[in-house]
Amino acid sequence: MAEGRAADIGTGPSWVGQALDGTGDWKVRTRAPFLLGLLMLFDSWDSIVIAYALPVIIADWTLSPLAAGSLISAGYGGQLVGAIFFGSVAERYGRLPILRWLVAIMSVLAGFCAIADSYNHLLVIRLVQGFAIGGALPIAITYVNEVAPNATRGRFFGNFQFLMIAGFGLASVVSALVVPDYGWRPVFAVGLIPLLILPFTFMLPESPRWLAARGRIADAVKALARLGCGEGQARPGVDAANQPAEARVPFALLLAPGVRGEFVTMLLLWFLTYLVSFGLTTWMPSLYVGVFKVPLKEALSFGFITSTIMILVPLLLRQTIDRVGRRPPALIGTALGGIALFGIPFLPISAVPMVATLAITGAVGIAFGAMVLWPYSAEIFETRIRSLALGTMSSTARAASMLTPLLVGGILQATGSVTYIFLTFGAASVLAALIWIFLTRETAGREIA
């Protein structure tokens, strides 16, 4: 790209990368993706559980459709702001301290959701909780990528991503078993569980890449030793001790000449991908019932099939992404998904099995693109701006998620047809595939700066 590459801004603390790839007893490091993955499982849970609790909340408090929609939008609105704000904070004060505080706040507020006694109380709690939910995930992903070995970074991250994604499916299954008989409050109370996991994260040191980038060379060496680096493997260069530490990381760094082109490319990918992903996830059950006249039970079964397949996607990526690279699964998935979505408008309303097959194909295809975006984005931005960049990308995804209900609802209201909905989703998915093909570069196995 004409603007240059994000990872080419500076040489970065390459001695840290060499140490992370060296020999040693890496038992502590191997626990990082599992510990943080468990925490982010509940981040995903807290993010989506409102959708499964909402039907009962509506009945309990006699909510209007607008009020019910506001409960969902409040959480996403908070996540949008939190992702950007706390990404910047983590660049200044470190990954783990900020992450621990955010997880603690997220969990405590989940408990408050469970005992909320009015609509207004729950609305405010969900908004504030959204700040923590949105801020925690990009920081956790940043940390996992920064301590991973280069050669197997995809598999290392895959352990984390599987647990993170499992939160969505687990919330669906548990809610179906609990909410009908016990109401909506218990599923919010489950969000307190991370408080039991959080103390175990203190076995993990701060990111050695972040410490080195801040000029804290001695602390970086100690962090590497705690992770399991072998004696003598961490050898800072002569220039490392003289590396300046920036007091703050301004957003303007993302628009610097060496970063701007790749930053804009990633913004487009995140927006297009999550516009389709969130749109299919939230609207397909309603479209099955309202447009294709599918019985509710059958419509929910299609959703269950989709969720089950999606849980398997990170497992497949974990096993293959280091060998085939990041780009092929993303570009093939988004291309095939887009083609499948383009096919739906040309089917008769009565062709429900074929409609469901194409819709599931589209959802799974775009899921490959969505799941690759996290590790890929963490790899193309250098350490000093990584958390801020990931926070901005995550915020862009939340913005797309907030726009989707307006887009789909507006098209349905204006045309009364699903034709333009699927054409829009298909076009967005294919455009994402073209961006992957022409405007991205491979990062598998490369040292991250």
From TrEMBL:
- Does the keyword Transmembrane helix feature in the UniProt annotation? yes
Entry's Gene Ontology cellular component terms: plasma membrane
Main location class: membrane
Where does the record place it?
Membrane
Per UniProt, residues of the Major facilitator superfamily (MFS) profile domain are 32-444
What are the TM regions of this chain, as residue ranges? 34-54, 66-86, 98-117, 123-144, 156-178, 184-204, 263-284, 299-317, 329-349, 355-376, 388-412, 418-439
Which InterPro entries has this protein been placed in? MFS_dom, MFS_sugar_transport-like, MFS_trans_sf, Sugar_transporter_CS
What is the protein's name according to its record? Answer: MFS transporter
Organism in which the protein naturally occurs: Sphingobium nicotianae
